[in-house]
Amino acid sequence: MLARLRDWARAIRRDVHALWLAARDPRTPWAARLLAIGIAAYALSPIDLIPDFIPVLGYLDDAILLPLLILLAIRLIPPALMAEHRASAAAAAARPVSRGGAAFILLLWVLAAAWLIRVLWPWVAG
């Protein structure tokens, strides 16, 4: 059962990457593009709308809502186009991971949070 769960997680990760690729493809219908961009941005973001430390609801978006939205976006994309992007995503997954790129994205999030705190602090402390 653990192997099936691991395979499912890999398929979800591949599909999110494929949706990101499809969102940038001009052959993808606009509704699917908008949904795919939103899903990929949310799935790849280290920040959750509902934090995971909130009991039950914290994992609801990750475990139920996100996979359902992924399925919806996949159905909106023509099957041949989705197969093409899945193949590209699978090939990309076989390449080495860039830890430097991940560190850069994390740094951007920290800087954005610091800037937001700096801008809003006078108003909040008010």
UniProtKB/TrEMBL annotation:
Signal peptide (from-to): none
Subcellular location: Endomembrane system
Name under which the protein is recorded: DUF1232 domain-containing protein
Annotated InterPro entries: DUF1232 (IPR010652)
Gene source species: Roseomonas nitratireducens
Membrane spanning residue stretches: 30-51, 63-81, 102-121
Occurrences of domain DUF1232 (ranges): 32-68
Record key words, sorted: Membrane, Transmembrane, Transmembrane helix
Main location, first listed in the record: membrane
Membrane topology qualifier: Multi-pass membrane protein
Pfam families found in the cross-reference section: DUF1232 (PF06803)
